Amino acid sequence: VLLHSKQAAFFHGQVLELQAQLTRADSVLLLWLEVQRTWAHLESIFMGSEDILHQLPDEAHQFSSIDSDFK
Length: 71
Known about the structure:
Elements: H1 12-47, H2 50-55, H3 57-70
Protein name: Dynein heavy chain linker domain-containing protein
InterPro entries: DHC (IPR026983), Dynein_2_N (IPR042222), Dynein_heavy_linker (IPR013602)
Domain Dynein heavy chain linker: 3-71
């Protein structure tokens, strides 16, 4: 509503750019939350189970390596 007001006409371009930036920031934050949820799930699988370490040694090693780089 504010974007279409007469007073905002002068700032229309700036408002659209700020709106686009906020939309990108929102998308990045939502994606980051999904990564964190997935990482926590994988961490509980690979770091909390000796059985998985024996069944999937290559994947467990790869996860451990990436995990240490990330941290």
